[in-house]
Amino acid sequence: MVEAVLFVLMAVAALTGAVTVVLARNPIYSAIGLLGTLFSVAVIYVVHLAHLVAAVQVIVYAGAVLTLFLFVIMLIGVDKSERRIETLPSQRIGVGAIAILLIAGVVAITVFGNFEWVPAAASVIDLDATNGTVAAVAEPMFTDWVLAFEATALLLTIGAAGAVALAHYRRRN
Amino acid sequence: MVAPGWYMALAAALFLVGALGLLIRRNALVMFMCIELMLNAVNLTLVAAGRALNDINGQVAVFFILVVAAAEVVVGLAIIVSIFRLRSTASVDELSEMKG
After folding, report:
1. Domains detected in chain A
2. What angle do CA A157, A146, A65 make, to 5 degrees?
3. Do the beta carbons of residue A62 and residue B62 sit within 8 Å?
């Protein structure tokens, strides 16, 4: 019962935030809408006992990424004069077609799909027992996924170096 | 207990809104936010599926997506800022030199 109430509340909040991101004319309002969506999704993570993921969502996404967005919005100025005229007329039709296809997909999954959720093999950790703690998430990350973990370390280093290189770029002459 | 399909539906709806925003909007910053929305929808799917299947690997995958999203935002925003320095605009319609 609690989960159902939380789900409805957070689903409405997340979708409201998402629609605000798309429809707001001022990019600052878009950023605030994104913040609402991120917090709602974090609450849903807590409902799913993914406590560490929820904390990281709030700290990294709502904290770091969104602050970076706001910094850039302030830096380049709020550009309110976004043109509403479509320069690619065929894209309107494409957007409508994609929307219909995706909505049909959602309806097919939720209404007509009788998906069987079969819990995996015995090697799986019991989520209720461990509650998605740091230890529970770190154990597979540093054993099965250690190569991917190292690759992300490399990716972050390259990303930081690339951002600095782009920020220092000057046109010659 | 809410069925996992409802979380999937919410994630799909979030993804849909993000995808439509990416196609509709012309401001590069807002398009970036829509990409973040889509990544969040996928994260939500992974966590919900991991819970339904009682598998911790769903949460591990979310971490990797988070890292990729963070790296993408850093590089993408740097590109937007450098484009803005050259052109004084953040509208993608203005950047059509490579049009065939």
Report:
1. 1-78 (1.20.120.1200)
2. 40
3. no
Closest-approach residue (CA) in chain B for A150: B64
Ranked by mean pLDDT, the top range of A20-29, A30-39, A60-69 is A30-39
Q: Is the dihedral of CA A157, A159, A164, A169 positive or negative?
A: positive
Q: Report residue A61 as tokens.
A: 């996404």
Give pLDDT, residue A104: 84
Strand partners, B91: B27
Interface contact A132-B29, CB threshold 8 A? no
Give A66 to chain B, closest Cα distance, Å. Answer: 9
Q: What is the pTM of this model?
A: 0.87
Residue A117 confidence (pLDDT): 66
Residues 4 through 43 of chain B touching chain A, CB cutoff 8 Å: 4-10, 12-21, 23-27, 29-30, 32-34, 36-37, 40, 43
Q: Which helix (H) or strand (E) is A96 found in, with range?
A: helix A89-107
State the Cα–Cα distance between residues A68 and A71, nearest whole angstrom: 5
Q: Do B31 and B18 form a contact (C-beta atoms < 8 A)? A: no
Instruction: Indicate the average pLDDT of chain B.
Output: 86
- Cα(A127)–Cα(B9) distance, integer angstroms: 22
The residue whose two tokens read 């302030």 is: A74
CATH of domain B27-90: 1.10.287.3510
Closest to A103 (Cα-Cα) out of B81, B28, B48, B19: B19
Contact B14/B33 with Cβ under 8 angstroms?
no
Cα-Cα-Cα-Cα dihedral sign, residues A7, B39, B5, A109:
positive
| Bridge partner residues of B27 (DSSP) | B91
Question: How many Å apart are CA A19 and CA A30, to the nearest integer?
Answer: 9
